[in-house]
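so my prof wants the structure for this chain in the tokens format not the other one, which i didnt know existed until like an hour ago. anyway here's the sequence
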Amino acid sequence: MKQLPSWKDLHVELEKYSAEHDALFAKWDDYYQDGQWALEGGSPRTPRLFRETAARAWTKLGRPRGTGTMEPWQLWIEFLLDQGWRYPNDGKWSSDASERAGGWKTQKRLAEEGPRILPRVFQVSADCCQDLAERENSIEELDATARAQESIEVEVRTAYARRAAVEALISKVAAEGRKITRKDIWTVAGYKDATEFERFQRGDARTTRSAALAFNRVLDMVPIDFIQLLGRIQQPDKKPASK
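here's what i got, hopefully its the right format
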């Protein structure tokens, strides 16, 4: 399946066509039984370029390829009007190019025909695509912020649970008559410094899987087993003296 262009790409393409074919406009034609959009102005090549580009924009919206008697490019025109795009951002109903193509009388007639006229369809479409690109970027930024916030919240919850487990083990061992420190915990887990334990305890994403498994195993130990293992580490068996 061919990848759809981005809204930014469509904006750039339509801007380029607008500079060359700005005289093109869309007009509701009542000649057909139910009425249809028709394109006027420009060279014979101009309407084809718009139909092809507008169809891709309509497809980008994720809408059906066609509805009833309307083609995708005509549905794109309907979308533009539904979204309030009745003229370009620059506020000009006509451009120098369209005035040269149709003259002042043509522009006056179009203006008098009301809302079923869409002037400068390339530029209007370009402006709409630019707006959609900006909105899409804003949504992506919000999503990224939300994901970052969620990650922070997960780390906080993880850190809270792990610190609680550490405190619980220290209390349980104390109840058996032995006072221990956090150093004793990472020592029993097989570590010689506190780096990995500190990462584990604060829920750091850099905590390795092996470290998490080792510390969780120690935190789940019965106090007596912990005390015995710590004793063996601190006072390893001595070999009997040779005679």
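also thought this was worth mentioning. The CA atoms of residues 232 and 240 lie 16 Å apart.
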